[in-house]
């Protein structure tokens, strides 16, 4: 768990964005979506969504075979539950007539890091084969710069997975989830977002949403401690930053 806590005066769950999708090919009216904090009653549904969609399509987890590694899968699920309990994860819901009719179109698993958290993470031990490799990547690419000193912040927002259900891809859910991080950060007093992306589509959306490049690695040459981590992958992963402007005082 992060040492940073969501301010008590920020309502939970809060709505951060509402937008309209595209007109469907068969002429049906476009869907409307609401992006908000993940409410407690959706926690387990979000875990299922991330497992069903994100872990199948995200290149690094998929190529390492996380779904065939039950220890890593359990460790990842436990980490996602911790993140959900931090009350910073967001979900895109399809608007319906009743609350119960809302469907999960996508979600973004978000958490915060302080300098204290980063020091503690150096000693975190994971047992799963896949999670061990992913932790190597995390410590390497996040640890190349002193992010707190570079951006003069005490805390930043980060992420461990953004997922969109296939039937909603055409409505730019991923981009809107990335953009919704800004009002979330403004309300909670966070001035920096740090995220790494591992697919061409996600990288395109990140730059479109205003994220700037910090670190870059090609999969086919990326080594940590002499080990080639993703020998079967092409493409690249990048670490990005986005600074969050403070809300103007009224």
Automatic annotation (TrEMBL):
The highest taxon in the source lineage is: Eukaryota
Q: Which InterPro entries match?
A: Acyl_CoA_acyltransferase
Report the Gene3D superfamilies cross-referenced here.
Answer: 3.40.630.30
A GO molecular function term, named singly, is: N-acetyltransferase activity
Q: Please state what the protein is called.
A: N-acetyltransferase domain-containing protein
Organism for this UniProt entry: Laodelphax striatellus (Small brown planthopper)
């Amino acid at each position: 768990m992060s040492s940073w806590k969501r301010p008590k005066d920020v309502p939970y769950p809060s709505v951060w964005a509402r937008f309209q999708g595209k007109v469907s090919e068969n002429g049906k009216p476009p869907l409307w979506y609401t992006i908000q904090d993940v409410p407690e009653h959706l926690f387990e549904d979000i875990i299922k969504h991330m497992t069903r969609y994100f872990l199948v399509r995200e290149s690094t987890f998929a190529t390492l075979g996380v779904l065939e590694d039950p220890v890593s899968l359990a460790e990842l699920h436990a980490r996602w539950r911790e993140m959900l309990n931090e009350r910073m994860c967001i979900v895109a819901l399809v608007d319906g007539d009743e609350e119960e009719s809302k469907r999960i179109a996508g979600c973004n698993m978000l958490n915060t890091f302080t300098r204290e958290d980063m020091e503690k993470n150096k000693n975190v031990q994971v047992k799963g084969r896949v999670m061990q490799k992913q932790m190597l990547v995390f410590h390497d690419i996040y640890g190349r710069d002193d992010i707190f000193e570079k951006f003069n912040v005490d805390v930043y927002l980060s992420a461990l997975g953004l997922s969109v259900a296939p039937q909603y891809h055409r409505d730019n859910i991923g981009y809107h989830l990335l953009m919704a991080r800004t009002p979330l950060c403004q309300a909670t007093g966070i001035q920096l977002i740090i995220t790494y992306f591992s697919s061409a589509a996600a990288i395109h959306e990140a730059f479109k949403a205003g994220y700037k490049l910090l670190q870059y690695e090609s999969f086919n040459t990326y080594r940590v401690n002499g080990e080639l981590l993703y020998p079967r992958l092409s493409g690249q992963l990048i670490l990005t930053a986005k600074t969050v402007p403070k809300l103007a005082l009224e």
